[in-house]
Design goal:
Layout (H helix, E strand, L loop, with lengths): L11 H30 L3 H19 L3 H15 L3 H38 L2 H14 L3 H16 L4 H22 L6 H25 L8 H35 L1 H37 L3 H28 L4 H5 L3 H33 L3 H26 L2 H26 L8
Helix pairs in contact: 1-7, 1-10, 2-4, 2-5, 3-4, 3-6, 3-9, 3-10, 4-5, 4-6, 5-8, 6-8, 7-8, 9-10, 9-14, 9-15, 10-11, 10-13, 11-13, 13-15, 14-15
Length: 436
């Protein structure tokens, strides 16, 4: 017998109860980075450049390992939906052991190659030296960063997004207080910023481990479970790498076109990144709810919730697009008063605005398919959209001098290709496989 409409929908209040705290967690790190940048910025150009480069290298290293968050949510939410909460939390314990092992590996490799990588990217010795100093200290927190990713993953899986917000806020507030003190009165300079970063990551990791300990979920490591988690990890790492290739290529082509184009691209891209956090919070809610529904064998409910959240995300995308269209006469001037940069912004701005409703659908359906554990499909289609849609357009843009219009057209094609793929897959229902 088909489930009733009431049984196949969730309330907007329930969705927001998951999405709003998740948005807080997603936004906490960028806000802390802004504070850190403001503090270090007063040390001079070289330390600031060192922080920017070192922070970027650490971010690239750790962003490839977000499977510890998204993959863990996919696995734990199914167990939670099957009323096996203890096993779901135990899955988080195994993800934490995996985070520790991978984090130690990242630390060792990072320490070995930090200077060579910084020198390759910076080219100039003073900046490379500053970046190396910051990165080698910050890498002490690599295991803690990954423990936090795993902690977010299992807590989202059991539909608890409030505790992660408390933990991350506590950690970042402590670090925001420590950073200016260590940099200036204590006199550690750029090293103080890195130490404050490690303090934040360590506090958050300790809080997540304590939560597992209280639930008696830090059992001995299970190679079988960690191997299964790595299967999801492989697909998500490849998917994440395709994003990095696209965004790095876009920045590189913009820089080769002109300094003004590079500046305009950076402004619009940062706004795009911020809005992606807003839309991703609904995707996280979708992931948790879909996983739980499939774990409890309610496949009709999962399909209904998939389209319900997608509808909300589409409306949010339309609202964001309209808001930033209306803000065009004012907002770019808040970032720069350079006439050449302002002249380049429209070539990216209007495509950025048009993308928002599309992104609303794509991000929500990404969350649906991640919640279903359909990572192989997401891996293949994202790589295909990057290699066959985005990259040819962006390098044609470089060859023919299309500038920002070509770059952002490429990003739009990348989104549209993913839109077609995710809508088709979700409509097919092939992802809606019940069971824990």
């Amino acid at each position: 017998m088909a489930e009733s409409t009431a049984e196949t929908e969730v309330t907007l209040r329930r969705i927001l109860a998951l999405a709003v705290p998740a948005l807080g967690v997603l936004a906490a790190e960028p806000l802390y980075v802004l504070i850190d940048t403001a503090v270090v910025g007063h040390l001079g150009a070289v330390p600031l450049a060192g922080l920017a480069l070192g922070g970027t290298m650490l971010s690239v290293l750790t962003s490839q390992l977000t499977f510890l968050s998204y993959g863990t949510t996919a696995r734990t939410s199914r167990l939670y939906g099957a009323n096996r909460r203890a096993e779901a939390v135990a899955e988080g314990g195994q993800a934490t052991w995996l985070a520790i092992a991978v984090g130690v590996l990242v630390f060792v490799l990072g320490e070995l190659f930090a200077h060579d990588l910084a020198q390759l990217l910076a080219g100039r010795a003073p900046i490379a030296d500053a970046a190396t100093e910051w990165l080698r200290i910050a890498l002490l927190g690599a295991p803690a960063i990954l423990i936090t990713l795993a902690g977010n993953g299992w807590m989202r899986g059991v539909q608890d997004t409030v505790r992660p917000l408390r933990y991350v806020l506590a950690a970042n507030i402590a670090s925001a207080i420590a950073c200016p003190i260590l940099v200036y009165p204590v006199g550690l300079g750029l090293a103080g910023s890195a130490i404050a970063n490690v303090i934040a990551q360590t506090i958050a990791a300790i809080l997540f481990v304590i939560a597992l300990w209280r639930e008696r979920a830090m059992t001995q490591p299970s190679l079988a479970v960690m191997r299964a988690q790595m299967v999801l990890g492989r697909d998500l790492i490849l998917r994440s790498a395709s994003f990095q290739i696209c965004f790095l290529s876009a920045a590189a082509v913009a820089a080769r076109y002109s300094a003004a184009a590079a500046g305009a691209h950076q402004i619009v891209y940062e706004l795009w990144s911020f809005l992606s956090l807003v839309l991703d919070s609904l995707a996280i809610a979708a992931q948790a709810l879909i996983g739980a529904a499939l774990g409890s064998e309610r496949t009709d409910h999962a399909r209904a919730v998939a389209w319900q959240i997608t509808g909300y995300s589409l409306l949010l995308g339309i609202a964001l697009g309209a808001l930033f269209a209306a803000a065009y006469p004012v907002l770019p001037h808040a970032f720069t008063d350079d006439a050449a940069v302002l002249a380049q912004i429209p070539y990216a701005w209007w495509l950025f605005v048009v993308q928002q409703p599309v992104a609303g659908i794509v991000f929500a359906l990404d969350g649906v398919l991640l919640g279903a554990g359909d990572t192989a499909f997401l891996r293949t289609t994202t790589l295909g959209a990057a290699l066959l849609g985005f990259l040819p357009l962006i390098w044609l843009s470089y060859a023919f001098g299309w500038g920002l219009l070509g770059i952002w057209a490429g990003l739009t094609v990348f989104l549209l290709a993913r839109l077609v793929a995710t809508v088709w897959r979700t409509h097919s229902g092939a992802w809606a496989i019940g069971g824990a």
